[in-house]
Amino acid sequence: MLNTLKNRFEQGYRTSTYPKKTVELAPRYRGRPQVHKNAPSDLVVKCAAACPQDAIDIDRKLINMGRCVFCGTCERISEGRFISFTRDFEYSVAEKDHLLTDGEIPSLADHARQHFKKLFGRSLQLRQVSAAGCNACEADLNVLATPFFDLARFGINFVASPRHSDGIVVTGPISRNMKTALLQTYEAVPDPKVVIAVGSCSISGGPFRGSPEITEGLDSLLPVDLYIPGCPSHPLTNLHALLKFFK
Ligand code: SF4
Ligand code: SF4
User: Fold this and answer.
1) Fewer beta carbons below 10 Å: N end or C end of the chain?
2) What CATH number did the domain enclosing 211 receive?
3) Which tens digits make up the pLDDT trace of 90-128?
4) 55: Cβ below 6 Å to ligand 1?
């Protein structure tokens, strides 16, 4: 007991100060993309041709965050003159149309489903479904339960049974083999329920786009309420999205 108290005294309070205080991520972190509209057209075409995800809209000079895997190729090729990545990790959206962006992203707090705040603002139980994800998105969700992020302090928990949950959080490209399990999990969640797509895979198929083995976009199967882009999305991106959308 004395050792426990001693350790506690020595280690102090380790939980993140976010969202009370802003957090600055490492310089190498790639967050919200910023499109520079005055970039020459040939540079835009060059970036689009090199993008492995077909995530660049040449005509409108926009980037599709739902497809982007944040590989940085476009930033490197254009030397930041067309697309540069900021260190802003608060870039989730509630409408699919908002994934196509020049870097300006509407405030997530103003989404159309405000009744969710009343229903789940004080207590939110979520069931995570890994529908053939590579485990990176899953790991960055799991880490929210650690003392550093301490998701439970906000009244949000991941639970084992869909019957005890208020919604599902889906990661992965939804392979053919996982489709039935995903739909059955969704059916088992009592109404009203929320659906959250995390990562490029669940939003658009991610690196597996075009494969006949996957579903290209969770929204083709279920009504998605919240989109959290990334490959994987940073734990703080996940945390920000959950707090802004539900609190
Ligand atoms: S960072 Fe995104 S938009 Fe840029 S090349 Fe990679 S996948 Fe394409
Ligand atoms: S979005 Fe990227 S990190 Fe997440 S499951 Fe797909 S490949 Fe893995």
Assistant:
1) N
2) 3.40.50.12280
3) 999 999 999 999 999 999 999 989 999 999 999 999 999
4) yes
